[in-house]
Amino acid sequence: MHTQHKFEKLKSILAEMGSAVVAYSGGADSTFLLKIAFDVLHDRVLAVTARSETYPENEIAGAEKVVRQIGAQHMTIETRELNDERYASNPPDRCYYCKKELFSTLVALAGEMKYSYVADGSNLDDDDDFRPGSRAIVELGIRSPLQEAGLHKNEIRELSREMGLVTWDKPAMPCLATRIPYGTRITRERLVMIKKAERCLFELGFSNFRVRYHGDVARIELLQNDMPRILAADISEKIISRFKELGFTFIALDMQGYRMGSMNELLPNKSIRGEQ
Questions:
Q1: pTM score, two decimals?
Q2: Of 76, 119, 135, 201, which cross-links 206 as Cys (Cβ 3.0–4.6 Å)?
Q3: DSSP character string of the chain
Q4: Per-residue confidence (pLDDT) for residue 270, from 0 to 100
């Protein structure tokens, strides 16, 4: 099906829904979904962003700014996934417990405020990933209009670009827990270390990177083209100094470069790629 036909199908799906709470992270997919939902449903759509210790504050601020530009109603809620031992112990299906808490809260909110559905920004490519959180989406009856319309990530980015959405080329930003190997406990202290380390790289002009936590080792993944720059003395010295201030003893550069789901390489099924 042609992209434009999928786009029209998306609008028809949203019109049929009548009203919706949109789980809004500020990323490319949820921004595109919110924009079209607002165009179709107007004041019958509500964007809800979860504020959590597992997400950087600048991501929340960015999401709030984009919602204001779109013009949709917006609210934030607090989630406390670290209080759930099933999540904090960091099993391979930890995302299930996180999404179950989030979407259970959104379903209750939608019921109280008389919205017909809760919608998320999953796209068709997400079916190919290791995403245990999708089980919670199915269990709670969450709608995924982008998937229902048959839209792939590249189509969403292209349509977003054509519409002038600032998020059209925004890199994926899954929660900070994805930087910690499965089985290594997720703590507030470790999340803060990761958050501040990645902020350091961002302020130095890098994009599409991850700082993976391995105890006293920080493993940096970034684009291959950025490797010569990060090894330059003036840059590497700043990174080493800052990372050691944060509590890391060793700072390593992953020669394979940035890749989504690298923590999933530790799982028995090597073909799995996930949300990291």
A1: 0.87
A2: 201
A3: --HHHHHHHHHHHHHHH-SEEEE--SSHHHHHHHHHHHHHHGGGEEEEEEE-TTS-HHHHHHHHHHHHHHT-EEEEEE--GGG-HHHHT--TTHHHHHHHHHHHHHHHHHHHHT-SEEE----GGGGGSB-THHHHHHHTT-B-HHHHTT--HHHHHHHHHHHT-TTTTPPP---GGGGS-TTSPP-HHHHHHHHHHHHHHHHTT--S-EEEEETTEEEEE--GGGHHHHTSHHHHHHHHHHHHHHT-SEEEE-TT---TTGGGGGSS-TT--B--
A4: 41
**d(Cα 110, Cα 253) in Å, to the nearest integer?**
45
Predicted local confidence at residue 226, as pLDDT: 96
